[in-house]
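Q: Could you fold this chain for me?
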Amino acid sequence: MSSAPVTSGRRESRRVALATMVGTTIEWYDFFIYANTAALVFAQLFFEPLGAQSALLLSFATIGISFLFRPLGAIVAGHLGDRMGRRSMLVLTLLLMGAATTLIGVLPTYEQAGVIAPILLVLLRILQGFSAGGEWGGAALMAVEHAPTEKRGLFGSAPQLGVPLGMLLASGVLALTTAAFGPEKFLEFGWRIPFLLSVVMLVVGFVIRRSVEESPVFKELQQQKSRSRMPLVELFRKHWWLVLLAALTFAGNNAAGYMSTGGYVLSYATTVHGMDRSAVLACVTLASAVWAGTTLLGGWLSDRWKSRRKVYVVGYLLQILWAFPLFWLVDLQLVIMIAISLSAWMLSTGLTYGPQAAYFAEIFPSRVRYSGVSLSYALGAILGGAFAPTIATWLQQSTGWIGSVSIYLAVMAAISLAAVLIIRERWGTPLIERSDDYVAAAAEAR
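A: Sure. Below is the predicted structure, expressed as structure tokens.
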């Protein structure tokens, strides 16, 4: 009913893992540069006529708007990835993201161009969202489908590492530029530099991603002539419930990431408490490094324990427990406490992110896997991080109590934990089926 494992040689597997990590790091550098700059200056540069509070809310909302277009990117890239292959989609999404980011760096401000400036900003953010919606699925599948069966979690954590590393790179570049230029010069022109640097990284990522081989799973699907004609239709007809559950497993993690390293804590500490911007950015940079380490740990543990579910459970329980201490320590207004708070928060975030690529790849059948993992990831991002900073800002402003934000984060983690417990464990399931009956094939593999 099922095939023998389809993998690449160890050397090629490692090369693919490195390529997916580098490319994803560049993509998410672009994405996070926007999120953090939106928290710092976009309210003043593009939405100032609305007033301080409304401008900040709308600035955060532009982060969320891009998430609404992730499903469209997931649908398009998923269809093409299931029909034409994983590698070509990796290159295309990287080019789209890099172009959008570079163009943001040369946009006129509201003062220079009026209402056209925020409109162009939103359009380019939408393009970023479209690209992000298709990028992750391809990177995750290339890493996992090339990997040895017993190391899928570890190899699959490579593209996952690209997210915290992208955040680390983005926050580090922002910390350097804000410190180098000072608040006035950064607001005047310094904010553009991190966006323009994307051009250099785009060239590097393009060369690396073009050098890797196509997924062995997709090659075998071609040989079997068993590719789906309409992957999205087949996905929704047979596996819609799995798409929803997989999305929910990611929602809590995504909310946690965007609330902490994705801009909200930075905005809260600098706007509400008036703390030094560079100091808080340094804490975010440190937390991003911790996130990278715990992401690798999460992937490794999921192989070691022969269970993705167990790692998720530990991670989400830790997230629920730390939701309140996260802001209690920030409210002390001490840099060291913010660094400790965010670093501890990243332990739970990494554990629930490291196993995700292998976890998603194992629960979807090969014929519709790119569509399934991409759409689940995109929907999970909408349910989780899309408007998390906006919701948190509204909760904090309307209640005057930061604890309301902690409750929101704990509830999101609890929902994701419930979804993880519903989905059956599929560690080690063969990544390609000889039968169209995926349910039977998966059952046999278990």
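A (continued): The domain at 10-205+229-445 is CATH 1.20.1250.20 (Growth Hormone; Chain: A;).
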